[in-house]
Amino acid sequence: MKRSQIVFLILFSILLLSIASYAQQQEPQPVEFRSISKNLYEVLGGRGAQGGAYIGDNGVLLIDAKMDEQSVDQTIEQLNKVTDKPILYLVNTHSDGDHIWGNQFFPESVTFFAHENCRNDLFLPKSNNEPSDWYDQKLAPFIPSITFSEKMDIFLGSKKVELWYFGVGHTTGDIVVYFPEEKTAFMGDQIFLTRPQLIHSYKGGNSFEHVKTLSKMLETLDAEIFCSGHSQAVGREEILTHIKQMKGRQEKVKAMVDQGKTLEDIKGAFEENEGRLVESIFNEITKN
Ligand SMILES: [Zn+2]
Questions:
Q1: Whether the Cβ atoms of residue 161 and residue 108 lie closer than 8 Å to each other
Q2: pLDDT score at 19
């Protein structure tokens, strides 16, 4: 083989390898069910947030919808491996696209549930001020049609699922889905463990309320396992640590505001990835 041919082959292999790794980065992990009990699963992988699946006596309740057709198809495929019961209900924990945009790829026969503020959030203008995509009539069957304000129970035969609203936090419409038999709570984006908490100020989210909301959840529910959209399932200890860390940040920002420091100074005193959260806390303190 000539030298030029060898060089060409090497370059060609490098190109193929980089295309493969690019495709891998773009392709999410396949959807996978992680069992919590024989009836309750975490729905991991796919494009969009982690959710849940609960198999009741007469059908299935899902928590959150991922965000594209392939991920929804994979969710249904995995579900069919553990039950042949129909999907009756889907509960959206809040209005972010990675939890709700997939609603439209489920059968129209599914009934969608959410907090009343979550439903309202869907119709907020987009960040570029264009009207929300949810005004499209084609999406009408997939917008949560049953909402509640404080608490609602859904029964699947003898099994009870509790939907709880503990207050403002990540947005104003985040709920907790609680399974008493499993002592397990699905809390959507009300906790991030691998990165600083997201607080969507533009949807009315508030870090000081977030702390109160999580504390109320711990006081009210006898839960031992907490599943969430972007972190591993954890116990009560980790939630308490998260609350403590948030309070610590708030106190530090407050002290610096009292010393007359600017937002830039304050951000500089935190890790770079905390900037967005620190800005929310700063605005909450200075705009009150
Ligand atoms: Zn999310």
A1: no
A2: 47
